[in-house]
């Protein structure tokens, strides 16, 4: 099975290295794509940008954090067999609100306005607080800002028909776990899977996350 791994707004594709290695060892193909481009694109442009980096068919697309805004478009562009939302924002398909409209409901108050790529101490506090020291050092090396306006302002389209799995880190300090559990039920019609981690289980709990991916998709 192919897995297309989509980084979030504060990290590079390297953040997926541990999970990709585990998936490959288990006999799968894992491609960590790069969303960064010289200019900001519309949502459909980022979906095309990902398609240009992937040469297979019908993958499972896994998105982290803010890239949940892009996940439905990417999954449709790749004719994905499934979508996985890892601590990822689930758009308001029925109401059409953007992430900016919902920010105070979705995000932990202390996280709003923080730029972890510019402040390693804040990154450790909010993103990597459950990582061991070696993992934390590697995680800090993966920091990179990717925050085009479209991620905050894009209004949600129709709900995708592609099957979804939602993974909720119970110790997330950025995206509210209780909000994500509710959004999984109300917006995607699924019960979330919980993992005992902070916002980045692909870094702090890669084996557990890889096991969920291979078991549920």
From TrEMBL:
Domain of life the protein comes from: Bacteria
Keyword check for GTP-binding: no
InterPro entries: AB_hydrolase_1 (IPR000073), AB_hydrolase_fold (IPR029058), Sec-Metab_Biosynth_Hydrolase (IPR052897)
Gene3D superfamilies reported for this sequence: alpha/beta hydrolase
Keyword Hydrolase: yes
A Pfam family assignment: Abhydrolase_6
Any one Gene Ontology molecular-function term assigned to this protein's record: hydrolase activity
The AB hydrolase-1 domain, residue ranges: 3-211
UniProt keyword annotations, A-Z: Hydrolase
Protein name, as recorded: Alpha/beta hydrolase
Species in which this protein is naturally found: Amycolatopsis lurida NRRL 2430
Taxonomic classification: Bacteria, Bacillati, Actinomycetota, Actinomycetes, Pseudonocardiales
């Amino acid at each position: 099975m192919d897995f297309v791994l989509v980084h979030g707004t504060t990290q590079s594709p390297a953040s997926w290295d541990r999970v990709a290695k585990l998936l490959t060892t288990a006999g799968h193909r894992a491609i960590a794509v790069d969303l960064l481009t010289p200019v900001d694109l519309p949502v459909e442009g980022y979906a095309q940008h990902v398609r240009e980096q992937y040469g297979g068919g019908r993958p499972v697309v896994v998105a982290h954090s803010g890239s949940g805004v892009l996940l439905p478009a990417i999954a449709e562009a790749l004719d994905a067999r499934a979508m996985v939302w890892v601590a990822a924002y689930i758009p308001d398909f029925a109401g059409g609100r953007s992430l900016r409209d919902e920010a105070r409901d979705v995000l932990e108050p202390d996280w709003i306005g923080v730029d972890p790529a510019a402040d390693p101490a804040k990154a450790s506090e909010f993103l990597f607080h459950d990582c061991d020291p070696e993992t934390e050092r590697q995680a800090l090396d993966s920091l990179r800002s990717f925050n085009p306006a479209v991620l905050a302002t894009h209004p949600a389209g129709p709900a995708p028909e592609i099957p979804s799995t939602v993974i909720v880190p119970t110790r997330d300090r950025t995206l509210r776990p209780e909000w994500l559990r509710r959004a999984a039920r109300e917006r995607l019609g699924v019960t979330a899977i919980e993992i005992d981690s902070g916002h980045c289980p692909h870094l702090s709990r890669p084996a557990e996350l890889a096991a969920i991916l291979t078991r549920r998709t």
